């Protein structure tokens, strides 16, 4: 079995492993539907959070290779 990279777990957006700044999605409406994304230092992972949850809100992480598929699913409104 090939070695697989371990995806780190994050409790909230204040985790120091997030590189650079959180940035609002270009699809956010500026109201209550704001999603932010950030790169994670040292691993090919992207963090996603809900802006209205603030600094202590949960972070959903995706391998960089899976993030595009997630976006396509959201755009196609295929989430339950």
Task: Walk me through the topology.
Elements: E1 18-24, E2 35-40, E3 45-50, E4 60-63, H1 64-75
Antiparallel strand pairs: 1-2, 2-3, 3-4
Number of domains: 1
The count of β-strands is: 4
Number of helical regions: 1
Strand content: 25-35%
The H-and-E topology, N to C, reads as EEEEH
Give the CA-based shape: globular
Spatial arrangement of strands, main beta sheet? 1-2-3-4
Q: Please state the average pLDDT score.
A: 75
Q: How many whole angstroms does the radius of gyration measure?
A: 13 Å
Amount of helix:
10-25%
Which keywords apply here?
80 residues, alpha+beta, 4-stranded antiparallel sheet, 15% helix
Task: Explain how this protein is built.
The protein is α+β, with helices and mostly antiparallel strands and 80 residues long. It has one domain. It is built from one helix and four strands. The chain has a four-stranded antiparallel β-sheet with strand order 1-2-3-4, covered by helices on one side. Strand 2 and strand 3 form a beta hairpin. The longest helix has 12 residues. It is globular, with a radius of gyration of 13 Å.
């Amino acid at each position: 079995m090939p070695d697989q990279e371990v995806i780190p777990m994050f409790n909230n957006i204040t985790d120091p492993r997030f590189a650079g700044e959180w940035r609002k999605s270009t699809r956010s409406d500026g109201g209550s539907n704001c999603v932010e994304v950030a790169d994670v230092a040292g691993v090919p992972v992207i963090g996603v959070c809900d802006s209205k949850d603030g600094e202590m809100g949960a972070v959903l992480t995706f391998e960089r290779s899976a993030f595009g598929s997630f976006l396509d699913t959201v755009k196609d409104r295929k989430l339950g």
